[in-house]
Write a sequence for this structure.
């Protein structure tokens, strides 16, 4: 009940805007943090969106792909009995493992179920079960204690005028944006990318055009698994590695996808940035614990104004 | 019949298929398409015309029966493998990729042979000049008639030997319908065998070499286009008595 009151006073009294060292500086800092958080959500959400677009499967277990990526890299980096590699090769191997895991789940589980004509609701329930299973497998091996990678853990922030960002976080943002641009280029310009869009657009016609739908879906799953693992490493780097980190991110991924427009990969990217920025900016006024709630509130407000999402297309009638 | 059977490009025999377990929509129907032939399939709504084409093309599992293409058994092969063997298909509804541009739609037509795109696109755009003007436009912004052209153009990109058309004239204005039938005749004259499902039975039978009348999942009548056009039963049941007056 305190929250609306703060908002009300902030609105009525012009100079009662939150105190402390320069509100504008803090807002800019929150914006930078939000862009960084949004980039991580976007990298993981793009795969989730492509999987939904091509198969209409709502993959509730996508968060676990994120966690497994982060935990794999942790094991290779500092895990007991692990090889103790530097984080960069560890992350690359974790991404490969994430891609293979995605491919394995598609090949061993979803494809056989699809071919049997299992309904989408049933498949959705199965993803919930899979999520639970994978999360607890991670729990058994990783434990409940939060961990960090050995390298790049504590860094001095670069001072960029009003805002500060550590070199680590700056590189994460730059790499994320490059990866997202790479995905966009692939979707827009390559043969397999166009086939992915064609499949999302009209599955039967894709098959009728000679596209091997199962193969394209496999590629999408491997891409989604690899991106999730990369997002997991980034998330673990900027915050901390825990057994349920991906699950905590899942709701924000869904929010980003829906906000951007269901079924549009570019929408998922844009929506994720909006969600990340709203979550971080909300902590300027409200308790950090409520970050996600404000992000979801933003989702609801946008959907009330634009039901198809930011980049979603209204169905053409007739 | 047996001699014709041997030369036939595409044969479907005693096909049983359906969507719901235990319910057959197709109950033993079949057809035959010879090289360079233009064959029409007509019948009332819900007769199973679209279902038959989908079953032949591997989009719906055949429960019993056989489909052969150029003498080889292709029953229940996935559709994308039939495309590489030389069969093209344009569905009744949703015949384009709405969120892709016209050019990308055509590109997906040569998905299996990307190198042939530039050679084929010239031929297809010659047949459908409207596609050349609209290359960069999204397919979902096109009219029904233009979409039909794009759907056919996409299917022709692979230079198929057989083209399966499901109601190419459905929902089009008379002027566009005329255009579509003209194009179908043209494509057929260039050597492509065509199996065409049509709602516009009279127009279809006028241009077809042979026709099949489908009813409740089985073959009701077959004959040449003119035979069917003047068959009293067919007129009574499927063409309407108005047709007789003409
Ligand atoms: N996807 C589907 N799932 C379940 N039943 C279907 C499906 N498509 C068609 N049917 C049923 O199969 C039967 C035959 O349908 P089909 O579309 O083949 O008819 P049609 O002869 O093409 O009719 P129309 O002239 O209206 O296009 C109908 O009873 C229809 O209800
Ligand atoms: Mg039909």
């Amino acid at each position: 009940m305190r929250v609306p009151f703060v908002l009300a006073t902030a609105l009525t009294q012009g100079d009662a805007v939150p105190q402390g060292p320069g509100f504008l500086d803090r807002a800019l800092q929150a914006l930078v943090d939000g862009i960084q958080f949004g980039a991580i959500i976007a990298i993981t959400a793009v795969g989730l969106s492509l999987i939904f677009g091509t198969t209409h499967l709502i993959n509730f277990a996508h968060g676990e792909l994120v966690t497994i990526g982060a935990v794999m890299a942790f094991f290779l980096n500092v895990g007991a009995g692990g090889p103790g590699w530097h984080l960069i090769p560890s992350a690359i191997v974790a991404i490969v493992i994430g891609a293979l895991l995605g491919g394995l789940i598609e090949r061993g589980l979803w494809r056989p179920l699809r071919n049997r004509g299992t309904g989408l609701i049933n498949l959705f329930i199965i993803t919930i079960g899979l999520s639970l299973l994978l999360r607890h497998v991670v729990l058994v091996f990783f434990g409940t204690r939060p961990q960090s990678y050995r390298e790049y853990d504590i860094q001095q922030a670069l001072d960029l005028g009003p805002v500060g960002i550590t070199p680590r976080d700056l590189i994460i943002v730059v790499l994320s944006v490059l990866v997202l641009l790479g995905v966009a280029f692939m979707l827009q310009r390559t043969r397999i990318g166009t086939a992915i869009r064609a499949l999302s657009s009209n599955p039967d016609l894709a098959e009728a055009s000679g596209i091997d739908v199962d193969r394209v879906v496999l590629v999408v799953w491997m891409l989604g698994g690899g991106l999730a693992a990369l997002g997991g490493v980034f998330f673990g780097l900027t915050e901390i590695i825990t057994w349920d980190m991906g699950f905590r991110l899942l709701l924000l991924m869904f929010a980003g996808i829906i906000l951007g427009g269901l079924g549009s990969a570019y929408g998922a990217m844009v929506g994720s940035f909006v969600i990340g920025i709203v979550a971080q900016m909300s902590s300027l006024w409200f308790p950090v614990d409520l970050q996600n709630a404000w992000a979801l509130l933003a989702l609801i407000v946008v959907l009330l104004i634009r039901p198809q999402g930011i980049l979603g297309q209204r169905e053409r009638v007739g | 019949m047996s001699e014709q059977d041997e030369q036939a490009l595409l044969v479907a025999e005693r096909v049983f298929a359906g969507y719901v377990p235990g319910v057959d929509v197709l109950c033993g129907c079949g057809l035959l398409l010879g090289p360079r032939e233009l064959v029409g399939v007509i019948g009332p709504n819900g007769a199973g015309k679209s279902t038959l084409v989908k079953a032949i093309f591997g989009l719906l599992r055949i429960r019993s029966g056989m489909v052969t293409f150029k003498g080889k058994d292709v029953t229940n092969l996935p559709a994308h493998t039939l495309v590489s063997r030389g069969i093209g298909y344009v569905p009744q509804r949703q015949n384009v990729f709405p969120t892709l541009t016209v050019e990308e739609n055509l590109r997906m037509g040569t998905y299996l042979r990307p190198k042939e795109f530039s050679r084929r696109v010239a031929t297809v755009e010659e047949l459908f000049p409207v596609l050349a003007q609209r290359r960069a436009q999204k397919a979902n912004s096109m009219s029904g008639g233009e979409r039909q052209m794009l759907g056919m153009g996409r299917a022709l990109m692979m230079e198929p030997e057989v083209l399966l058309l499901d109601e190419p004239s459905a929902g089009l204005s008379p002027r566009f319908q005329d255009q579509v039938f003209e194009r179908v005749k043209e494509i057929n004259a260039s050597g492509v065998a065509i199996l065409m499902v049509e709602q516009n039975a009279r127009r279809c039978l006028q241009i077809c070499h042979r026709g099949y009348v489908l009813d409740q999942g089985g073959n009701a009548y077959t004959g040449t286009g003119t035979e069917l056009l003047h068959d009293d039963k067919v007129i009574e049941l499927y063409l309407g008595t108005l047709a007789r007056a003409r």
Remarks:
- DSSP finds twelve helices and two strands in chain A.
- The interface with chain B takes residues 191, 194-195, 197-198, 200-202, 204-213, 313, 316 of chain A (CB under 8 Å).
- Residues 1-16 of chain A have pLDDT under 50 and may be disordered.
